[in-house]
Amino acid sequence: MSDASSTWFDGLERNFVDVEKQPGIDTKHFIEASRSLVTLFDLLGSTTFGTVISDMNGNIKKINDRYTAAPDRSQTLQSLVHEEHKELGKKANATEGLMWLLRGFEFTSKALRHNVSNPDEELATSFQESYNGTLKQYHNFVVKGIFSVALKATPYRKDFYEKLGSEKARVDEQSVAWLTALEEITTIMQKEYTDNKNFGF
């Protein structure tokens, strides 16, 4: 952050608020905003959430690799997944990577939404609640154990929000706008997968 009044949101490569959504979700914008989201876990504890960071970065790379390889067929996320699946079927790495990235985003957004809506609740509680309702169903015993340890090590609410910025009113306003945009994009793309079960993942 460049000065005392700056917030974490001010320094993002791209805010989800600024991701173009018509006629589809702009792939390049989405990749940039996704890379920015991953840095949020540095504030939560890069060691604690190392598995999450590594997983999200790996899935973002799969999407970016496809975008780079076939930009004319990947301008929007919708065109990317349909064109890649048509071409490669179940070997469509970016389509599968995006699916897992969206699951991670749902986990993140539900935890933060719960925390914003419950100002007296600690982050560990919000993230555990979200994990139970999102990622847990996809994880085996070992991964569940890793997440259990990570979630317990989540920083205190007060410390985390101070890292987002010193001006509470501004941080609160930006948090809600960013979170709402993230939720909207996640919902749009999850519906794309629900409506196209032939993706087969």
From TrEMBL:
UniProt keyword list: Transport
Glycolipid transfer protein domain span: 25-165
GO molecular function, one term: ceramide 1-phosphate binding
GO cellular component, one term: cytosol
Keyword Transport in record: yes
InterPro entries: GLTP_sf, Glycolipid_transfer_prot_dom
Highest taxon in the source lineage: Eukaryota
Protein name: Glycolipid transfer protein domain-containing protein
Organism: Arthrobotrys conoides
